[in-house]
Amino acid sequence: MNIVVFGAGGRAGRQAVAEAHRRGHQVTAVVRDPSGHKDLTDVRVVAGDVTDTASIEHAAVAHDAAISAAADLSVPPHEFFTASSRALTTGLAGAGVHRLVVVGLASVMPGASGALLMDEPGYPNEYRSFSLGHAAGLDELRRCDLDWAYVAPAGDFDHEGTRTGRYRIAEHGDPASRITYADLAIALIDEIEAPRHHRAAVSVREA
Questions:
Q1: Which phi and psi (to 5°) does residue 85 adopt?
Q2: NAD(P)-binding domain spans which residues (predicted)?
Q3: Rounded CA gap, 202 and 110, in Å?
Q4: Which of 36, 76, 96, 205 is deepest in the core (most CB within 10 A)?
Q5: At what angle do helices 77-95 and 53-60 cross, to 10 degrees?
Q6: How confident is the model at residue 41 (pLDDT cuts 50, 70, 90)?
Q7: pLDDT tens across 168-199, in order?
Q8: pLDDT grade, residue 125 (50/70/90)?
Q9: Alpha-carbon distance 168 to 22, whole Å?
Q10: Contact 151, 188 (CB under 8 A)
Q11: If you count DSSP H runs as helices and E runs as strands, how many of each does the chain have, helices first?
């Protein structure tokens, strides 16, 4: 398949690129400045802006599916994630790409109580604005016509962990659960190759 990955320079994006390439797919890695990502080898690297519809459409033409792992901490989270969701849904539709898999955030998934994890008692709120931004971006996806899947770690990332080759779908967010970036990438590419979740948000955690 031809897969375009937006936010390919970040930790999740790089692993998605690597996993797609490992499986023999043709990958276009979209970053803001290709000159800063010369280590992205064996894939096509292009400049792009995930908040700009025309840029997305240009990068995505002739691709079968897209992944977004993009974030920009220099922009207010609500502004960035709503703008990127709108631009992705419009730009990908214009390019004829109908499958989008988005790297999500645990805190906007339901917790054990049924409430959003970020609203459960005791959940740390120092990054609440980032969580609210992600939630707003997810709401934008729910209003679009694309076949999308929002794939979030059930708790947080195991930043130092290595690839195990396994993951499992979680019933709800759990602050104690972890998943490596490499194993999250497996879930992302699985949703491209054999989609199981359609217009839905799902949690994944270590197996």
A1: -65, -45
A2: 7-194
A3: 10
A4: 205
A5: 40
A6: confident
A7: 999 899 999 999 999 999 999 999 999 999 99
A8: confident
A9: 21
A10: yes
A11: 5, 10
Q: For the chain, give the mean pLDDT.
A: 96
Tokens 């930790």 -> residue: 11
Q: Which residues on neighbouring strands pair with residue 178, listed in sequence order?
A: 156
Q: What element of type H or E holds 73?
A: none
Buried b / exposed e over 24-40, threshold 16 CB at 10 Å, is ebebbbbbeebeebeeb
Determine the Cα–Cα distance for residues 171 and 181; give it in Å rounded to an integer: 20
Q: For the chain, what is the radius of gyration of the CA atoms?
A: 16
d(CA 104, CA 90): 19
Q: Cβ distance 157 to 181 under 8 Å?
A: yes
- d(CA 13, CA 198) in angstroms, rounded, equals 21
Residue type, 187: A
Pairwise CA distance, residues 24 & 100, whole Å = 19
